[in-house]
Specification:
Pfam families: Amidohydro_2 (PF04909)
Number of domains: 1
Keywords: Hydrolase
CATH superfamily: Metal-dependent hydrolases
Organism: Micromonospora endophytica
Radius of gyration: 18 Å
Protein name: Amidohydrolase 2
CATH topology: TIM Barrel
Order of helices and strands: EHHEHHEHEHEHHHEHEHEHH
GO biological process, one term: secondary metabolic process
Structural class: alpha/beta
Shape: globular
């Protein structure tokens, strides 16, 4: 049997001129690690060398706006252009090993949509990464509709990355790193539900949105409702909304749940490099998917085939 193609959909990389910022109110243990992680996020050579050592065939690079924008500020369109120009150059330096998701402020209306079109059509990037929310808007908001419409029309995926909402992150601070993750996962789940509640999936049937495993609660809540069944594998042919989950780690039971609910054709390997404690490696991916009880075809899809299909536009 040929080796599985391993694609890590959740890999962070940002132009060195825009240092990666820690999540708002980050737990102390995360804050202590952040300086080293920020250096790695800007080190393309190191990223490629590490991927080679660990047997990762393709990494999908992204820098969501909240990763590179000071808290309380909006990412200026000129900065987004520079970030995306640099990302396109980085991908072009190793096209067989890298793909890139354009950094887009989805809540900037038509200006965001214009940059999305430029990044895909002129720069050749493979999709978009957006913040899943702001402190007062979720991804289903009217302001984000132009960006989502463009993504659907161009046939490229949108990676809805978590943010650290101010009130929840402060409220959960006593939980340490669990509190940081819980706040980010809660807002990510809410963003997923907003796409359903605000009719985005119904209005844009060609929209493909990837959420990290942190948003799993939104998926579980949606699936318990009649309208929410449209995002599951049980949806009638032709009516299934295109919602994907990246594994954001290597927990077999969570991956099994996601594949049972969404179908193995809607789950992607994602390591949250370099923020996650566990490194993405070929051995870890293969072992985890086997322990999750996936058969050979399911493992092939989750390990890389799904990501390659999404990025093929």
């Amino acid at each position: 049997m040929p080796p599985l193609p391993i694609v890590d959909f959740h890999t962070h990389y940002a132009c060195p001129a825009y240092p990666a910022l820690p999540p708002r109110h980050a737990a102390p243990e995360l804050a202590e690690r952040w300086r080293g992680m920020a250096r790695r996020i800007a080190d393309l050579d190191g990223l490629l060398a590490e991927a080679g050592r660990h047997g990762i065939d393709l990494r999908v690079l992204s820098a969501p706006p909240a990763l590179v924008t000071p808290h309380g500020e909006r990412t200026h369109q000129a900065d987004l252009r520079r970030l995306n120009d640099h990302l396109a150059e980085a991908v072009a330096s190793a096209p067989e090993r890298l793909r890139g998701l354009a950094t887009i402020d989805a809540f900037a209306g038509d200006a965001a949509a214009d940059e999305a079109v430029r990044a895909i059509r002129e720069l050749g990037l493979s999709g978009l990464v957006v913040d899943c929310a702001t402190d007062d808007q979720l991804l289903g908001a009217k302001a984000a509709r132009p960006t989502l419409t463009v993504a659907a029309e161009l046939g490229v995926p949108v990676f809805a990355h978590p943010i650290s909402p101010d009130l929840m992150t402060r409220s959960f601070a006593g939980l340490g790193r669990y509190g940081t993750s819980l706040a980010r996962g809660t807002i990510n789940a809410a963003a997923l539900l907003s796409l359903l509640a605000d009719g985005v999936f119904a209005d844009l049937p060609d929209l493909h949105v990837v959420f990290p495993m942190l948003g799993l609660a939104g998926l579980a809540l949606a699936a318990a409702t009649d309208p929410g069944e449209t995002i599951t594998v049980a949806a009638p042919a032709g009516q299934r909304a295109h919602v994907y989950l990246d594994t954001m780690g290597f927990t077999p039971a969570a991956i099994r749940f996601a594949t049972d609910l969404l179908g193995a054709d809607h789950v992607l390997v994602g390591g949250d490099w370099p923020i996650a404690v566990r490194e993405t490696s070929r051995e870890r991916v293969e072992t985890t998917l086997t322990r999750a009880g996936l058969d050979g075809e399911q493992r092939r899809l989750v390990a890389g085939a799904n990501a390659l299909r999404l990025l093929a536009a």
